[in-house]
Amino acid sequence: MKSKFLNAVAALMNFLFGVIILTYSFIAPNEARATANEIVVMNQIHLFILLVLICVTIADFILLINNRHNSIFLFAYVISILASAFYIFDFDIIAILYLLGAFIICIQVLRENIIEKTNNIFMIILGIIIAAILLLGLYSLTYKDSVVELDKKENIGQVKYDEDYFKNISELKINDIYINVEKDGKWGYINQKGEKVIDFKYDYASPFIEIEKNNKKFDVALVCIEDTGEIILKNERIVYSYKNNIDVEDYEAQYDKLRDVYMNVLEQEKDFDENIISNVKDRKHKIAAYKEDGYTYPYNDEYDIYIKVSSQMRWNK
Question: Least enclosed by CB within 10 Å: which of 69, 212, 214, 247?
Fold first, then answer.
């Protein structure tokens, strides 16, 4: 099993595996902020990677034994085998080591004139491993499709967004500023006068953001109640709902979810971050209690509210 062709195929195997691992490490979501369904799919991919990694490591070890008298091949296969030790640490290191090992094997294959007979059975085994690597690559690149399918199954019974929804309603003409505020562990909305406009009943509530549909303008917000996320209008009508798998205290992830709905469900062209920031900057002069370091709403004897808003309104304090 020391033929030139066999080592070339082994180099291809290690190269493909390294490229796919490196690509996945770039496109995979941040596990700390991933949704429950994203984590399910990621765990499946990680298991797939582990199984392929074991097969590749065994194949490299067999080739190492058969090429042990060639110091360059020996070094290259040792590097590839060493990559498997980093599975629990960093996929980037695994990818780099496999790519390095593949490169060294290729260089040595071009330099050596090996004439030993190829083992056909082992060649078939390498072919099967390469096929598994390609399937892993396909699954990794299309992981979002798997997440969407899981979301669809969970969202049965939820309010599906209808493209014609905004055709059949008029602009609400509610000019008050709706400010998302937390009280006693529940979120609701007050206006610029400090008056309650939506009850404190949600586990999370985002700022309202302006959208345009059918040449009409509306303000929408993302709210969460129990395990359901909803996109609502200022009159509390639900435009769209889904099963919420994001921690209601993870404001960063909820913000990203609102951006996703804004772009991919409501299909808005205006930049999301620019829109949500401009809403604050354009309207802050209407709030009498506004201060440069935040918003203060001392609006009755029951409770005073002080909210500091980040530049992108990602954190609510």
Answer: 69
Please report, for residues 148, 180, 182, 198, 203, the alpha-carbon distance to residue 307 in angstroms, rounded to integers and kept in the order given.
Answer: 35, 10, 10, 18, 17
Q: Same domain, yes or no, for 114 and 211?
A: no
Burial category of 95 from C-beta neighbours within 10 Å (exposed 0-12, middle 13-18, buried 19 and up): buried
Residue 46 sits in which domain range? 4-153
Q: Look at strands 196-202 and 204-205 and give their pairing.
A: unpaired
What does the CA dihedral 286, 171, 239, 223 come to, rounded to 10 degrees?
A: 10
Quote the mean pLDDT of the chain. Answer: 82
Residues 145 and 12 in one domain: yes
Q: Are 31 and 148 found together in one domain? A: yes
User: At 191, phi and psi to the nearest 5?
Assistant: -100, -175
Quick check: 178 and 234 in contact, CB under 8 A? yes
pLDDT in tens, 96-146: 999 999 999 999 888 876 555 667 888 899 999 999 999 999 999 998 888
pTM of the model: 0.59
Distance CA 65, CA 287 (A): 76
**Residue 231 β-bridge partners:** 222, 240
